[in-house]
Amino acid sequence: MSEPAGINLEDLINVTPLKEGGDVEPKVEQLMGKLRRLQHGKRDLEEEIKEIISVSDFLQEELTTLRTEAYKLEGIHKEKEELCRKLQFQCEESEQDAVSHLKQNKKSEELLEQYRCEIQEFKLKQRKQRMKFENQLHQLIEQHKSLHSVFTPERLSDEIESAENTKRQLLSAEQMKLAQLHRLNEELDEMEKQRQPEKTAAETQE
Q: Contacts by 185-193 with C-beta closer than 8 Å and gap 24+?
């Protein structure tokens, strides 16, 4: 702040004309007092201006800091929005995968149920055939017992061998059917093992 125009004691004295025979000393004292008050006011104004400038600088720094913080927060907000979009997309994909797994599991369950029914039917059919084979074998044995007295010893051995061959053929057919049943059971167990991880993954996603 610029100082007031040069004020000196001589100027103040010259402002007030002296009357002839007047008292000069009181006028000088008044002017000196006025000068001291003006100088004191000037110092006060300078101190206030310094304080205002200091506060202004502090506020400017605060404003700069707030702008920097706002810029950082805006960047973080954009990153959060992008992350939110990615997570939402992943969630939608997971839901679609879960629906697909559920449909696949449903088809697998239906196929397994079909296999179970087929195996039950096959077992029932095997049971009936085994009963039929046992009845035929029993009838054949009874026939040999009743025909023992009719055939000669030479022909009896041939008939016995023929019966043994028939028995072996029937037993071989029975073993083949049992092997098929065992293979179907193994395939069913294998499908259950393959389906178990998918079922566990579907339950985890739920």
A: 185/119, 187/115, 188/112, 188/115, 188/116, 188/119, 191/108, 191/111, 191/112, 191/115, 192/112
Reported as a single tens digit per residue, the pLDDT across 134-147 is 888 888 777 766 66
Record the tokens describing residue 122, joined without a space. 């096959």
Task: Give pLDDT tens digits for 53-70.
Answer: 999 999 999 999 999 999
- DSSP structure class, residue 119: H
pTM (2 decimals)? 0.35
Nearest to 50 by CA among 1, 122, 7: 1
Here the tokens at position 157 are 């051995």
CA dihedral (56, 59, 61, 66) in degrees, to 10, reads -160
Closest CA to 198 of 108, 114, 120: 108
Q: Cα-atom radius of gyration of the chain, to the nearest Å? A: 59
CA gap 136, 24 in Å, rounded: 164
User: What is the b/e burial string over 58-94, where b = at least 16 CB atoms within 10 angstroms of the residue's CB?
Assistant: eeeeeeeeeeeeeeeeeeeeeeeeeeeeeeeeeeeee
